[in-house]
Q: What sequence folds into this?
């Protein structure tokens, strides 16, 4: 995917699914320009982690694409228990 | 100052201020929407906090991300701990968790 001009929401969802098996991912194109995304992830990998720790996990996934096809990503990170509330 | 000295100065600053944030611009004249939003949240919390302007200090702009291992600004530290940027502070504030962190710190 790297080096392509654009990343579709499905591309981002596949990256997260590969990095966090068993997670639920929903990607929203915030601007309609395929470069500002909101990524909502529900994953047991976030259990017991602070928000910054969760965002670090997400950032590691997208870092290779930031400053490239993806300009900005906003994260919404929930544990399965939090998403059930 | 060399990089090591700048990192030590950052560490000293973070550890000697209960609430400190590295932002673009100043409290009264923020130069970025995310910095402005973060400052606004802490104004609402009503506890004293320090800001450092990374636009006025290129060393901070370059080395605070190395210090925190986080790439973007603003960056908020409470009680010496890196909390996060605008998104995280906003979410913690809406959950009522930021208030708890601040109360525990100040």
A:
């Amino acid at each position: 995917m790297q080096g392509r001009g654009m990343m579709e929401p499905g591309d981002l969802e596949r990256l997260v699914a590969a990095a966090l098996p068993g997670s639920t991912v929903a990607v929203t194109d915030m601007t309609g320009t395929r470069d500002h995304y909101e990524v909502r992830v529900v994953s047991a990998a976030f259990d017991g982690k602070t928000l910054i720790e969760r965002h670090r996990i997400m950032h590691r996934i997208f870092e290779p694409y930031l400053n490239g096809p993806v300009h900005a990503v906003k994260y919404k990170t929930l544990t399965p228990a939090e998403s059930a509330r | 100052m060399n990089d090591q000295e700048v990192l030590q100065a950052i560490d000293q600053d973070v550890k000697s201020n209960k609430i400190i944030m590295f932002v673009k611009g100043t409290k009264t004249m923020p130069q970025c929407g995310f910095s402005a939003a973060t400052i606004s949240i802490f104004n609402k919390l009503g506890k004293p906090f320090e800001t450092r302007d990374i636009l006025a200090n290129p060393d901070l702009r370059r080395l605070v991300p190395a210090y925190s291992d986080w790439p973007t600004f603003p960056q908020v530290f409470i009680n010496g701990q890196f909390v996060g940027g605008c998104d995280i502070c906003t979410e913690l504030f809406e959950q009522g968790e930021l208030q708890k962190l601040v109360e525990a710190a100040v």
In short: The interface with chain A takes residues 69-71, 82-84, 87-88, 91-92 of chain B (CB under 8 Å).
